Structures are given as C-alpha cells and as structure tokens.
Amino acid sequence: MMKKINEAVAFIREQYNEKPAVGIVLGSGLGSFTSEIDVVKEIPYNAIPHFPVSTVEGHSGKLIFGKLSGKNVVCMAGRFHYYEGYSTPEVVFPIRVMKFLGIGPY
Q1: Which residues in the chain come in under a pLDDT of 50?
Q2: Domain 2-101: which CATH number of 3.40.50.620, 3.40.50.300, 3.40.50.1580, 3.40.30.10
Q3: Whole-prediction pTM value?
C-alpha cells in the first residue's frame, strides 16, 4: 500500500508542489463549495496513479488545490464509497495520500 501511496504523492507533487495544510472531502450537494476556493491546480482522479474514480453522479472526480481563508487546501471534489464496489483500503486511499501531501491535525 505504501508503494501506491508514494507513487500517487510523487505524481501529484510533479503537478503541484505546494504543501496543503487542510484537506476537504466534498460529497453530494457540496460541489459548489469549490467556488469558495482560489483554485491554483485541478488534477482529475483518473490521472493520478492508483486513485479510485468516483462513479456517483454529480461527483466531478478531481483534486483541487488552492487557497481558502489564507490556507493552502486540497479538496476532493467527489468521494468513493464501499457500495460502489471499492474495498475499504481503496475508499480511504485518497485520505492517506492527502496525509502524505502534508495535511494533518491542528
């Protein structure tokens, strides 16, 4: 699992190298929240190695990097569910990736 996480993190850092302080996970009905973020970079999930792809309608399926209230953030525009056929490790994979990108408790 760590090899997959490291590969995903390395790919993302090639695209965007700022360290996010906060991770945000959006789901149904929260897609418009991204308009609050000063977006710097968007990366589609299907471009990130080992990243699951959301199958739920209305989940745009991309990581969004930018600033919100003066903080660097990474936002998951769409999430994954066990009922979509993903295993528990696959469902939590993006959260682990965000942790290794730099988000953490305050």
Answers
A1: none
A2: 3.40.50.1580
A3: 0.87
